[in-house]
Write a structure and sequence with these properties.
Layout (H helix, E strand, L loop, with lengths): L1 E6 L5 H8 L5 E2 L16 H10 L6 H16 L5 H6 L2 H13 L2 E5 L9 H22 L9 E5 L6 H15 L7 E5 L7 H5 L5 E7 L2 H12 L11 H11 L10 E5 L2 H4 L1 H12 L14 H4 L13 H10 L22
Parallel strand pairs: 1-5, 1-6, 2-5, 6-7
Antiparallel strand pairs: 3-4
Helix pairs in contact: 2-3, 3-5, 5-7
C-alpha cells in the first residue's frame, strides 16, 4: 500500500508524516523531497492528458514528452536530492519510461518548437523561415537543415498506466523505500483532485490535511517570509480569496481518501489516531508512540494568531469571511504555551 500525505502548503501535513512514521510497518524517508512527479506541471498528469485524452494537429504528444523530459532534467540537477540519492538512476529510468511510450520518432521540427523564444527569438525565427522559403523557391530543393530535432509521437499507448506504475515503483525503490512494507510518501497526490494522481500508484490511500486559515496567514506572513511567498499576505483580502479558491474542490466521497484537520492530531489525539488507523489499516503503534510527534509539544504550533495582536484587524476579517474553515479551539480546554517559535 502507498499512503500519500497531502496538504495545501504549510497546512500541517508534515505533522501527520511524523505521526505515521512511528509505525514500524511504514517505510518513510525524510531525505526524499516532495514526491510530486504525478501532478507537477509537465508531470504524469499532463503527459496522460496529451497522450491518452486529447491530441492536436501540432502533435501535442511531442510537446508533452519534450516538456516531461525538461521537467525531469530540472529535478535531476547536481544539487537536487534525486541526483544525490540515485546518482544517474532517476534520470535514466525516467527517460527509459518515455522510450516505452514513444511509438514513432524521427528527426524534424514542428511549429510549437518556435513558441516561447521571446520577442527576439520570434523575429529571428520569422526571418529564418523567410530565407528558407526563398532558398526552396529558387533552388527547387528542400532546405537541408530542417531536421534538427527529435520528434515524438505517442497516441493512446496501451502500456501507459502499467509503465507509469512500474516507473514510479522503480523510482521509489531507488530512493530507498521498502516496497515490501507500507510506503509513506509526502505529497504524491494532487490535494485538489487526488484520484487523478492515485491511478499511477499501487493500492493507494490519500490523507488530505488542512489547517485553520488564521494560523496559515500568520505563519506565512510573520515566520515563513520568502518560503511562504506562494501564499499572498500583503493584503488580507487577497489571502481570503486565495484560501477559498484553492479549497473550492467539492470532491465526491471516496473510500480511499480521508480529510482531516491538523489541529485534530493535537486537540483530539486519541480519537483522530483511531480514525487514521482504521482508515489505513495500520496495526498497533507499539513502543514508538510519540517518538516523532508529541501533541503536547506541537500544540505551540496552533493558535499563532493569539501571539500577534498587531494583526487583530486582519484576523477578525478572516474570521468573518472564512467561518467554515475555522477550527473550534473554544471546545477544548487545552491551550498553547507559545514558549518557542513555530516549527
Amino acid at each position: 500500500m502507498v499512503i500519500g500525505v497531502c496538504g495545501y502548503g504549510y497546512s500541517g501535513s508534515g505533522a501527520l508524516l511524523d505521526y505515521l512514521r512511528q509505525w514500524d510497518e511504514c517505510s518513510c524517508s525524510l531525505t526524499v523531497p516532495e514526491f510530486d512527479i504525478s501532478y507537477v506541471p509537465h508531470g504524469l498528469q499532463d503527459l496522460e492528458y496529451q497522450l491518452m485524452e486529447r491530441r492536436t494537429r501540432y502533435i501535442s504528444s511531442h510537446g508533452a514528452i519534450r516538456d516531461f523530459k525538461k521537467m525531469i532534467c530540472g529535478m535531476d540537477t547536481p544539487r537536487c536530492r534525486f541526483r544525490k540519492l540515485t546518482g544517474n538512476g532517476f534520470w535514466a529510468r525516467s527517460f527509459r519510461f518515455i522510450d516505452e511510450l514513444v511509438q514513432v520518432s524521427w528527426r524534424g521540427n514542428t511549429p510549437i518548437d518556435r513558441y516561447g523564444k521571446g520577442f527576439t527569438g520570434s523575429i529571428m525565427a520569422g526571418r529564418k523561415r523567410h530565407l528558407i522559403s526563398i532558398y526552396e523557391r529558387v533552388s527547387g530543393r528542400k532546405w537541408p537543415y530542417s531536421k534538427r530535432d527529435t520528434m515524438y509521437l505517442s497516441v493512446m499507448p496501451e502500456n501507459f498506466y502499467d509503465s507509469a506504475r512500474s516507473y514510479l515503483r522503480d523510482v521509489m525503490e531507488m530512493l530507498g523505500y521498502d516496497l515490501g512494507r507500507t510506503v509513506l510518501l509526502n505529497q504524491p497526490f494532487d490535494v485538489y483532485d487526488p484520484r487523478r494522481s492515485m491511478k499511477f500508484f499501487d493500492d493507494p490511500k490519500a490523507v488530505l490535511v488542512d489547517r485553520d486559515p488564521r494560523d496559515i496567514y500568520v505563519l506565512a506572513k510573520c515566520y515563513l517570509r520568502s518560503n511562504g511567498a506562494f501564499i499572498p499576505t500583503d493584503d488580507v483580502e487577497d489571502y481570503i480569496r486565495y484560501h477559498r479558491l484553492v479549497r473550492n474542490d467539492a470532491l465526491p466521497s471516496d473510500p480511499d481518501i480521508m480529510r482531516m484537520r491538523y489541529e485534530d492530531l493535537i486537540y483530539d489525539y486519541e480519537r483522530t489516531g483511531k480514525r487514521l488507523t482504521d482508515f489505513l489499516g495500520l496495526g498497533d503503534i507499539g513502543s514508538g508512540e510519540k517518538k516523532y510527534f508529541d501533541p503536547a509539544v506541537s500544540i505551540d504550533n496552533t493558535q499563532l494568531f493569539l501571539k500577534h495582536p498587531e494583526l487583530a484587524g486582519d484576523i477578525r476579517r478572516i474570521e468573518e469571511a472564512l467561518p467554515e474553515y475555522l477550527y473550534p479551539f473554544e471546545k477544548f480546554s487545552l491551550r498553547p504555551r507559545h514558549s518557542q517559535e513555530p516549527f
